[in-house]
């Protein structure tokens, strides 16, 4: 969408919003489309495309027919947009409801629903019923969906388009190609599942996203309608947890403390201990065990052994693949991000006008900060807005916005004073997020006698406001993000509130050791239901992140925080804190693994022809890199520096040698 098309769409919207009787094609061509179309045919195609675009922005265009004329006579057809049917109903939230809503909107981070959640909150803020709210005690929950596949499936669900992907069948352990009508997505037992119609089997099936062996292909021309009243949560409730199994593992003596905590020792030989570990999901455990490389070997069961070998072989095969040229854009380092488009600009302008109506006189930089754009980008928006108006073109028919002395005022809004209704993605992002909070608001200290009542009431208000747009919310069902370590969570929350230090015993997975620390807690954040807290560590004299499930003991040490550090300005909190001592590593990621560039905060990226990605990433512990490569089983490899690549290769070869396997041998 070009800038001129953005302006034309805005003028078309204003014209159709501000007419009671409707406007004919002839009037629209003469006023809105003057100079844009060379002939009637070109105008007709342009107008039809613009109607589709306005519908995507949430505006339904009514078609009115003059009586006495044929329905196929364009001259007798008029168009208008109803002022109320396309607007977001008024939603007024209490402070507690606003806090709960903000917790829910933070969940999606970079996932497909992340931008939708941001836009939904801005619409509520633009309507004036939702004031700025701070998160309690710096709590930032978020969801980590299953990579690119999650985004692709959500897009297909919204467009009601079938998808195709390679899949490792659990029953046969063979890779098969599946063609599926995606009805819904949900999280159960620590995994994301797709539920839909398997066209090859003409039956409903569940698919684990982690078992997809290829990128998801959206079949743009293959449409479907999901079952009426489909509810992903109800469907996922029919799943039964995998049966409990026992693994026998040979583990290097004195290594892998975290694994030892979860198992029981048996007799061992040759400097190794044999552990018994209870597990349910072989793929999930295999991901962990593959990362330990030569320090652990699976004796049994055979399925788990095969899953580990398959990951190691995948990583080794990718490492041995032909090299690719390492070329990044010549400009300054660019972090991978979704490209901003003119659609984004028009979406922002439709939020901007009602926001200014309810927030008169704000400083221009405050407005830019609220919408996450630069001052220049905001002024560009304002320049388009003040040149937009009704077809007559008189001064009183234009949007009237001034920003004298850097404070912005609007005196004529031409019926854009209320935000457009929620889209399906926006409704799904908020309603699904609220359903995933569980008891988190109460644990996080939401100041209300009954935090649960705030969660219930805001859900009812938003469901009412969403109306039909809430359909997609029933197709996405995430797991609760409330922490399992509720006592430790409460201890950190209280220390944050009171400004007190904490003493903890902590198991470091990378260093494979337990240490004691005195820390100043700064904020809590999560990845699914795995919770971390960011703190200033006095023994390391720097910021560190600590996983709650690896904290062995936690208590106040009686001292106030030292104020030597403040939380990083990043929102949400970063899982890894950059340092001048970090190793700068160039990775090649497949399309399936491209999301790792976001997960590990790539310094810069470059797209590859096959849909993969080059990513330059900082790693604080280079010795951990072989574990990283093995864990991701063929979706990532090191290109540079050479010594780290060689270390990773040696790690994989040593791990495979235990199983008598090579890159070409069959799994197991």
Brief digest:
With 668 residues, this protein is an alpha+beta fold. The protein has 20 helices and 26 strands.
Give an account of the 3D structure.
With 668 residues, the chain is of the alpha+beta class. The protein has 20 helices and 26 strands. Strands 4, 18, 19, 20, 21 and 22 form a 6-stranded mixed beta sheet that branches. Helix 4 packs across helix 16 (451-466), helix 9 packs across helix 10 (302-319) and helix 9 (282-291) runs antiparallel to helix 19 (625-631). The protein is globular.
Using the CA coordinates, give the radius of gyration: 28 Å
Task: Determine the structural class based on helices, strands and strand pairing.
Answer: alpha+beta
Strand content: 15-25%
Distance between the termini: 52 Å
Helical proportion, percent range: 25-40%
Largest sheet: 6 strands, mixed
Average pLDDT, rounded to a whole number, is 85
* Total helical elements: 20
Broad shape: globular
Number of strands: 26
The low-confidence runs, each spanning 5 or more residues with pLDDT under 50, are 332-340
Give the secondary structure arrangement, pairings included:
Layout: H1 3-17, E1 23-24, H2 25-31, H3 40-56, E2 61-65, E3 77-81, H4 95-105, H5 114-126, E4 139-140, H6 147-159, E5 161-168, E6 175-188, E7 191-198, E8 203-208, E9 217-223, H7 232-236, E10 245-252, H8 257-261, E11 263-266, E12 272-279, H9 282-291, E13 296-300, H10 302-319, H11 342-358, E14 362-363, H12 364-370, H13 375-386, E15 400-402, E16 407-412, H14 424-436, H15 440-443, H16 451-466, E17 476-477, H17 486-498, E18 500-508, E19 513-527, E20 530-537, E21 542-547, E22 551-560, E23 583-589, H18 596-599, E24 604-607, E25 613-619, H19 625-631, E26 636-640, H20 642-658
Parallel strand pairs: 4-19, 6-17
Antiparallel strand pairs: 1-3, 2-3, 5-6, 5-9, 6-7, 7-8, 10-12, 10-13, 11-12, 14-16, 15-16, 18-19, 18-22, 19-20, 20-21, 23-25, 23-26, 24-25
